[in-house]
């Protein structure tokens, strides 16, 4: 009978040990790392597997006594765009099995993240039938509805996502909206639990607006609109920039727009950043806009706290960590009325929801919050309460831990002939 409390989190393209805020590093990296560490604190031995994408990276990174990242060599040891990583799945599986054998590790459960890891998990089932839990992070069926050119890899991805939904022991949807999309767009078969993403409620919300502004050198009487995230067209930064340029408060307020996030010159994020910078210039808002670059999680609480409003203008978002990080920091959120943002942001209570890509609606929403400071405080307070009650990492990890325990016990019963 399996009694091990060792689990493997697999995140082939989203390295949990890497710095966040670059193009390929975003919510998934944060999710895997934070879930891994929190599960480690609950007594699980957590090994997080990812692809080595740089020869100078250490193979093993120990995060906490029970939680480490292991980088497997699968494909070239350099950055490879995620659409091209699928071809290295067989090599990843072989390296995983080799690692397990060398380390004498028996995992009692595998939790895979994103469809490429789903393929790894399903392949592993052929060698070791242990429970597989899966989190999608993004659904091909939703994504391809919204894009004009569908990549070659799309049919493979859609096939893997459907097979995984129908065959994994449990799918974790991070919002009821994501679950609904799985059911309507992927398959009616398979078992889905809704367990949201979380955030660190000690880290976010630990500093006041006054102190944060002092530390960042932002005047106390200015009105700060904040965005942070990857530079990707689907993040809708264009909508935000257009909305701010339409603001009716520009003449009366010291309005400031801060657009945080890293980029690499010449890569897709660098090109999007250049496009946004040109638009800022074209719209005549250069003097009020800053691009602070990648913001580390040590400094990020200051930015959220310094802001009057945080804007999440994504075209689509399965969950959207930025919204709950801002809310934990008592900053109201103006977000697109899509996906997981409909779950996290309660319109008129913790912020406002607007139709995606509707810059006129975003302008009105931003202005409403900026011109009513008392309401802004009230929204921020309610936002903080909502995150404390529903979206702390510890609470999320407890729900995952309960799910794993149930599945491990079920699987050990079905494998133990004395019980079966
Ligand atoms: N992030 C960060 N610094 C940056 C840009 C982004 O720490 O400069 C983090 C942000 O705080 C959040 C994550 O990256 O934790 C983005 O997650 P989200 O779910 O909002 O978007 P995704 O990247 O998954 O599309």
UniProtKB/TrEMBL annotation:
Residue ranges occupied by any Glycosyl transferase family domain in the UniProt entry: 213-386
Organism: Laspinema palackyanum D2a
Protein name as catalogued: Glycosyltransferase family 1 protein
Coiled-coil region: none
Pfam (any one): Glycos_transf_1
Alphabetical UniProt keywords: Glycosyltransferase, Transferase
Membrane-spanning residues: none
Keyword Glycosyltransferase carried by entry: yes
PANTHER family per record: D-INOSITOL 3-PHOSPHATE GLYCOSYLTRANSFERASE, GLYCOSYLTRANSFERASE
Residue ranges of domain Glycosyltransferase subfamily 4-like N-terminal in the record: 26-202
Keyword Transferase: yes
């Amino acid at each position: 009978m399996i009694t091990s409390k060792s689990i493997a989190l697999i995140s082939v393209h989203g390295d949990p040990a890497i710095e966040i805020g670059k193009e390929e590093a975003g919510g998934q990296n944060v999710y895997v790392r934070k879930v891994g560490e929190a599960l480690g604190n609950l007594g699980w031995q957590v090994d997080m597997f990812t692809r080595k994408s740089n020869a100078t990276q250490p193979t093993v990174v120990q995060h906490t006594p029970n939680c480490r990242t292991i980088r497997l060599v699968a494909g070239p040891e350099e950055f490879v765009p995620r659409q091209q990583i699928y071809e290295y799945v067989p090599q990843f599986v072989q390296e995983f099995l080799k690692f397990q054998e060398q380390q004498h590790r028996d995992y009692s459960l595998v939790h895979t993240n994103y469809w490429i890891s789903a393929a790894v998990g399903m392949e592993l089932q052929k060698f070791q039938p242990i429970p597989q839990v899966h989190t999608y992070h993004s659904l091909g069926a939703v994504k391809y509805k919204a894009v004009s050119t569908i990549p070659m890899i799309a049919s493979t991805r859609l096939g893997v996502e459907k097979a995984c939904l129908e065959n994994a022991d449990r799918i974790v949807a991070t919002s009821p909206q994501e679950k609904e999309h799985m059911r309507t767009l992927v398959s009616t078969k398979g078992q889905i639990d809704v367990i949201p993403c979380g955030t660190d409620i000690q880290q976010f919300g630990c500093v006041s607006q006054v102190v944060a502004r002092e530390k960042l050198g932002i005047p106390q009487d200015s009105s700060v609109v904040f965005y942070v995230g990857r530079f990707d067209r689907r993040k809708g930064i264009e909508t935000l920039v257009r909305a701010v340029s339409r603001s009716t408060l520009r003449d009366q307020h010291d309005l400031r727009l801060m657009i945080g996030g890293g980029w690499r010159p010449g890569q897709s994020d660098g090109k999007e950043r250049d496009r946004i910078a040109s638009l800022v210039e074209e719209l005549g808002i250069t003097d009020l806009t800053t691009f602070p670059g990648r913001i580390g999680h040590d400094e990020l609480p200051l930015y959220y706290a310094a802001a009057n409003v945080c804007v999440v203008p994504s075209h689509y978002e399965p969950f959207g960590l930025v919204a709950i990080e801002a809310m934990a920091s008592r900053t109201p959120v103006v977000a697109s009325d899509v996906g997981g943002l409909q779950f996290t942001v309660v319109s008129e209570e913790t912020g406002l929801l607007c139709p995606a890509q509707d810059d006129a609606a975003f302008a009105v929403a931003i202005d409403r919050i900026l011109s009513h400071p008392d309401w802004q405080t009230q929204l921020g307070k309610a936002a903080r309460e909502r995150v404390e009650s529903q979206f702390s990492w510890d609470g999320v990890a407890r729900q995952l831990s309960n799910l794993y325990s149930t599945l491990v016990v079920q699987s050990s019963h079905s494998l133990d002939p004395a019980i079966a």
